[in-house]
């Protein structure tokens, strides 16, 4: 069936003229009416989106339909066209659900979607204008060194947020959570999930793991000391040789028994280099002496590393998101806080109260008067060391 026949059928059902019918397939506008559905690769059961425009001269259509499409943003895109593109592309819809859940929830309501889209644009425009006004006020005295320093910091914060926004839009994969590389091994007959870390100089074992493996009695305490790196940790001693099973191979290995590590066993560069092991990320396997040992899946790795990520400090990001300070993982506006509403408030309340007491109430009220919630104002003051102007610039940039 050609597209022209489909348009006539739509006109018969809805009284919408073919010239006002804009048909979309997978977000692409269908323009050639002479082609058939088969030529356009439109199969049975697939969805076509109909966008109606230029209805002022049509009769039989309600007044609401004759108002035309939602207003188009100056220099921007048509909200309805964006909505249809998201509806026609599952990947775009999943991305919208992750980054803009409120907007994604309104995809089936054109008027609501257009309203949220335009409100978001207006809000960004107001924030941009407010920043410009603030810079203009500071520029009134170009010889004021302090004012120029504030302007420089505001511009820097704006560039940082712009860089963050571009990264989230064009390279969202850099904010994904990358789980560590673990393999199943056996030490002295005891099964252990070992972290493979080519950046560690030595193979490290925790005291509890050494006890469970029955090799704590072999620790040579003459090798005790303090390991220094990102922090410090106490070295209890060294096990010079014990049998470790990797895959189907039994290999002799030495272990440095160290306190303060979250992992039970860490295979370091000493062992990997000794047995000429290679980490093949394409195969997702550890290759050691020709034998391929698969890395554990995300669901199989120890939970201690996941809990450490959940407890890491977080920074505010665009559109209400939060970003892990160490891992760079982005969480949605209602990420972990929405998932555990009964647990987080008791933990966060004392911290917020202590932070609020460390800043003058007048400074907090000044930021709240700009339209920001109290919690965001306190977080911004913490991030800027109590400087109200810098905190305002950070909030407007977020």
From TrEMBL:
Compositionally skewed regions (Low complexity) per UniProt: 332-342
Entry coiled-coil feature ranges: 121-167
Domain Ubiquitin-like per the UniProt entry, residue ranges: 1-57
Keywords: Aspartyl protease, Coiled coil, Hydrolase, Protease
Keyword Manganese: no
Domain Peptidase A2, first and last residues per copy: 192-231
GO process annotations (BP): proteolysis
SMART domains: UBA (SM00165)
Keyword Hydrolase tagged: yes
SUPFAM superfamilies: Acid proteases (SSF50630), UBA-like (SSF46934), Ubiquitin-like (SSF54236)
Any one GO molecular function term: aspartic-type endopeptidase activity
Entries under InterPro entries matching the protein: Aspartic_peptidase_AS, Peptidase_A2_cat, Peptidase_aspartic_DDI1-type, Peptidase_aspartic_dom_sf, UBA, UBA-like_sf, Ubiquitin-like_dom, Ubiquitin-like_domsf
Domain UBA residue range list: 358-398
Biased composition range(s): Basic and acidic residues: 303-314
Location of the region described as Disordered in the Swiss-Prot/TrEMBL record: 56-79, 303-359
Function comment: Probable aspartic protease. May be involved in the regulation of exocytosis. Acts as a linker between the 19S proteasome and polyubiquitinated proteins via UBA domain interactions with ubiquitin for their subsequent degradation. Required for S-phase checkpoint control.
Family: Belongs to the DDI1 family.
Assembly information from the UniProt record: Binds ubiquitin and polyubiquitinated proteins.
Protein name: DNA damage-inducible protein 1
């Amino acid at each position: 069936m050609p597209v022209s026949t489909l348009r006539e059928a739509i006109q018969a059902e809805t009284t919408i003229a073919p010239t006002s019918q804009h048909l979309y397939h997978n977000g692409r506008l269908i323009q050639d009416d002479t082609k058939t559905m088969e030529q356009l690769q439109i199969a049975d059961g697939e969805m076509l989106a109909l966008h109606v425009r230029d209805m002022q001269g049509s009769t039989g259509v309600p007044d609401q339909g004759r108002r035309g499409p939602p207003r188009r943003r100056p220099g921007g895109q048509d909200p309805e066209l964006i909505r249809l593109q998201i509806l026609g592309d599952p990947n775009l819809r999943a991305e919208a659900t992750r980054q803009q859940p409120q907007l994604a929830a309104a995809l089936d309501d054109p008027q609501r979607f257009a309203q949220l889209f335009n409100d978001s644009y207006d809000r960004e425009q107001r924030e941009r204008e407010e920043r410009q006004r603030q810079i203009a006020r500071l520029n009134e005295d170009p010889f004021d060194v302090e004012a120029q320093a504030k302007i420089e910091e505001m511009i820097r914060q704006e560039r940082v947020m712009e860089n963050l926004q571009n990264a989230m839009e064009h390279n969202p994969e850099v904010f994904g959570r990358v789980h560590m590389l673990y393999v199943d091994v056996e030490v002295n007959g005891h099964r252990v999930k070992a972290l493979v870390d080519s950046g560690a100089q030595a193979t490290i074992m925790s005291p509890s793991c050494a006890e469970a493996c029955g090799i704590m009695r072999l620790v040579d305490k003459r090798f005790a000391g303090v390991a220094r790196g990102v922090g410090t940790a106490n070295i209890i001693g060294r096990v010079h040789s014990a049998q470790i099973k990797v895959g189907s191979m039994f290999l002799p290995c030495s272990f440095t028994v160290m306190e303060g590590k979250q992992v039970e066993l860490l295979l370091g560069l000493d062992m990997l280099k000794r047995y000429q092991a290679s980490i093949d990320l394409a195969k997702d396997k550890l290759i050691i002496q020709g034998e391929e040992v698969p890395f554990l899946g995300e669901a199989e790795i120890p939970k201690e590393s996941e809990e450490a990520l959940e407890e890491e400090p977080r920074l505010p990001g665009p559109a209400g998101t939060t970003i892990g300070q160490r891992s760079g993982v982005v969480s949605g506006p209602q990420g972990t806080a929405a998932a555990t509403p009964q647990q987080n408030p008791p933990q966060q309340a004392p911290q917020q109260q202590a932070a609020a007491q460390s800043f003058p109430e007048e400074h907090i009220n000044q930021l709240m008067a700009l339209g920001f919630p109290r919690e965001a104002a306190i977080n911004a003051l913490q991030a800027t060391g109590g400087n109200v102007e810098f905190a305002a610039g950070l909030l407007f940039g977020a």
